[in-house]
Amino acid sequence: MEVVKTKIVDIKTGIIKASLKKPFITALRRAIEVEDVIVKIITDEGLEGFGEAAPTPAITGETHGSIIEAIEKFIKPAIIGMNIEDFEEIIKKINNSILHNTSAKAACDIALYDILSKYYEVPLYQFLGGAKKSISTDITISLNDIEKMVLDSIEAVNQGFNTLKIKVGGDYKKDIQRVKAIREAVGEKINLRVDANQGWKTKEAIFAANEIAKYNIELLEQPVKAYDLEGLKEVTKNSPIPVMADESIFSPYDAVKIISMKAADIINIKLMKCGGIYNALKINSLAESAGIECMVGSMMECKVSVTAAAHLAAAKSNITRCDLDAPFLLNNDPVIGGIFYNGSDITFSEGFGLGIEKIELKNEIFGE
Fold first, then answer.
1. Residue 24 and which of 138, 209, 260, 302 are 20 to 30 A apart at CA?
2. Is 167 a catalytic residue?
3. Is 24 exposed, middle or buried (0-12, 13-18, 19+ CB in 10 A)?
């Protein structure tokens, strides 16, 4: 009896665009809108999978042009005609098609996982493990003057968020005052996370960590430069607050280094940094084996890739924290389907795969 294979017959790209409700400001960059690359992978049986790549030059080094070129000229020729059942081989082809370009790879990886879970007729989080049926996210408080950050924090609490991620990085003494003011404004019942986005030096970070610990802080994210693993280790060793690595970890190899050095207490996995779900699963497994919990986060992205990240978070019990508020921060949502927000709570549609029905691009529509 002949076995029928499901082949990849085409890969298309488009641009999705949405404005933000308010500027998103960190120690690394300022954004007022999201403009990402959408990928659609099509099989000969009519299955379609969607993915998304966020150009973040300050972190991944990618732009719209580089992402589209990586997909069209390198990834697409490598996997067209391959059978979706040969999934691992497809992923290897993607990862070997071009060096770096992690967001471009992530978009194709996400689209393939969308197809594969549709092929088996289950939501993606169930296909990946099904540990949870819903998750909870924090919400980001952008780096601003103290008064503005306090007002934004109060607004977020009133919108139903019980965990705030406070952006700092730069003047560490003023950053301590930012954290103090926000804690006093929101009270003790609200959970606070602090993200320095590489904005401090090692000694500054150790001092700041010991000071903000007075305000009951859950974790301190990426206090020093991404390349400064020795500095990160020193902060982790001397901080009363658990330290989380973010920009320091792109690949499973980076995770091995962080774990072996004991340079962080928690690992933040982002699909745009690691190249998609396949590598994210590897990072989580490495961390879990070492007794280290993970967070799943995102860049400033629309709902396609954040939905994929949410499915990953729901699939694995070792992923205990989420920073997936980006679509909530948008003025308009060009994606129909996917995840749903109710304050900090995220739930999933009943559809197979990512559960995404339609994507409104700048010049066309993907989906139904």
1. 209
2. yes
3. buried
In terms of domains, do 15 and 86 share one? yes
Claim to verify: residue 72 and residue 218 sit in the same structural domain: no
40 and 111 in contact (C-beta within 8 Å)?
yes
Can you say whether residue 82 is alpha, beta or left, with left for phi > 0 and alpha for psi between -120 and 50 degrees? Answer: beta
Q: How far apart are CA 223 and CA 71, in angstroms?
A: 33
Clarify whether residues 50 and 133 are in a common domain.
Answer: no
Domain-terminating residue out of 68, 102, 122? 122
Q: Is the pTM here over 0.90, yes or no?
A: yes
Catalytic residue among 167, 273, 303, 316: 167
Q: Which of 76, 105, 270, 316 is catalytic?
A: 270
Question: Locate tokens 């001397």: which residue?
Answer: 238
Q: How do residues 209-242 score in pLDDT, each as one tens digit?
A: 999 999 999 999 999 999 999 999 999 999 999 9
Same domain as 184, residue 90: no
Mark whether 178 and 196 lie in a shared domain.
yes
Is there a catalytic annotation at residue 203?
Answer: no
Strand-pairing partners, residue 307, are none
Domain that holds residue 48: 8-122
